Amino acid sequence: MSAIAESEQQHVTARVVLISAAAALGGFLFGFDTAVINGAVDAIRGGFGLGAAQTGFAVSCALLGSALGAWYAGPLADRFGRVRTMQVAAFLLAISALGSGLVFGVWDLVFWRVVGGIGVGVASVIAPTYIAEVSPAAVRGRLGSLQQLAIVLGIFMALLSDAWLAGIAGGAAAKLWFGLEAWRWMFLVAVVPALVYGALVLGVPESPRHLVARGRPREARDVLRQVLGLNSEAALDQKVADIQHSLRSEYRPTLKDLRGPRAGLLPVVWIGIALSVFQQFVGINVIFYYSSTLWHSVGFSEADSFTITVVTSVVNVLVTLVAIALVDKIGRKPLLTIGSAGMAVTLALMAWCFSQATGSGADLSLPEPWGMVALVAANAYVVFFGMSWGPMVWVLLGEMFPNRIRAIALAVAASAQWIANFVITSSFPSLAEIGLSFAYGLYALFALGSLVFVLTSVRETKGMELEEMRD
């Protein structure tokens, strides 16, 4: 049976949706763990007496751990399997949440945040890899987008819990249960989703591509039968043969496999790295890590700043649902193009609004109508990001690389993403001291650069089988 005929028999099963959702819960922890510090920034800065550069490092240090976790996730997954690696990520996130909530000083906070970051980095690589490897090609984009949906839901729940805990305590620095400040509980509550994630992944099957590569084709056939709904023995044989051929009997790729003619790497690897870097350099995580501090700094009350942040996260969730509905209909590249153009315009508008700020320090404020315009522009920016660069980058990274290098190439691209995230996140407090207008103007330029990159370099992968991806 031809690959085309076999593909036509694939259909979406309830099981593939459920196991993809379970794997994507790692994205929930990814979003929760990275965004939860939003509500704690001011309390940590005041409680530990930190300057701008120290605050930036305390907020962003987890991202260094994420880069490390993403780098080693591929080799770990290749050796021990996707499922076992997801369990490791859940464990690291659970102990990090506990440690971060019980710290005595800024440096042990940094340590535990780095540990959690490693877990986030591992989850960021394994979830899209696993989902791409078990999904039918026709809906792989939508199932892959579950990762981003889980991320934005994690961000939303982190910001909502931050606002709730600060509200009932009377402020993030105020005492709450057992004599612990509210900001500590913001970290501690992350133990619950980490334990749930660890329990759920116990019930998902191993990736069929990993099973084939480990010489277990019979188990791979069973998984393919379950997740793709294939009942034809000939179709199953053909699918297993396609996987074996694509792996080329080389399962544990190394960095040497990524070598190519363009500055030492294959073109597809450079495209993956550039996608990751642009996703972060447009400044999206400044919104999700610093938004409470940002709106507070330009005249909004602490309570209003928390409310604005939660509303923004709701917008992010809703537009991610739109992206999931569109990704397999209009494709990855058109959505990225629309997103880049929209972000360039809205970021430029935010830069202009903040140039109208009056006062300085604690007395800084945005006069009417610029405060409202800045709010609208910020949420429009989140809309354009959430429907494009948020989910599309993870979908592309999970599917764009050839099978023989997917794990290691995704690890490299994801590590680049975390390093870029660290650069943007750690530098924002210092950039903000220069001027918020300067910071957002810089992000607008990167958004414009991302538009040029998409139009000239990104290849559409809608509807393609993973075995069709080329270097």
Gap from first CA to last CA = 26 Å
Known CATH architecture: Up-down Bundle
CATH topology: Growth Hormone, Chain: A
Largest sheet: none
Count of folded domains: 1
Q: DSSP helix count?
A: 20
Number of strands: 0
* CATH uppermost class: Mainly Alpha
Radius of gyration: 22 Å
Identify low-pLDDT runs.
1-8
Roughly what is the average pLDDT, rounded to an integer? Answer: 80
> By helix and strand content, what is the structural category?
mainly alpha
Would you list the SSEs in sequence order as H and E? Answer: HHHHHHHHHHHHHHHHHHHH
Keywords: Membrane, Transmembrane, Transmembrane helix, Transport
Domain Major facilitator superfamily (MFS) profile: 19-462
Transmembrane segments: 12-32, 52-73, 85-104, 110-131, 151-173, 185-204, 265-288, 308-327, 334-352, 372-396, 408-428, 434-455
Family: Belongs to the major facilitator superfamily. Sugar transporter (TC 2.A.1.1) family.
Give structural notes.
Residues 19-462 form the Major facilitator superfamily (MFS) profile domain. With 471 residues, this protein is mostly helical. It has one domain (3-468): MFS general substrate transporter like domains (Growth Hormone, Chain: A, Up-down Bundle). It has 20 helices and no strands. Helix 7 (140-169) packs across helix 18 (389-399) and helix 11 packs across helix 12. It starts with a helix and ends in a 14-residue tail after the last helix.
